[in-house]
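User: Run a structure prediction on this.
Assistant: Running it now.
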Amino acid sequence: MVYVIYAAAALGEIAGCFAFWAWARLDKPAWWLLPGMASLALFAYLLTLAPSAAAGRAYAAYGGIYIAGSILWLWLAEGQRPDRWDLIGMAVCLAGSAIILLPQRG
């Protein structure tokens, strides 16, 4: 379940940040900022649903999922095929995220 929460949070964060990127760098109209801000608020809310007693641990584990989501965004939304270094980096980050998430803590 935590991976679903993190995947949804990553989508919210990436979409929200991309809206700002599009406005600032791709000359999209300022109204793009409104759904961007809503997306970023949804991202922040979703992270509060992570089953962790410590925010820092939840954020650290989320980082690997965010990186994987960013690589997928690069490919699916921006049409840039990830290279082997992107995929290796993504795999390392997902492994790190799993190391943080998998132990049962009291």
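The CA atoms of residues 67 and 90 lie 6 Å apart.
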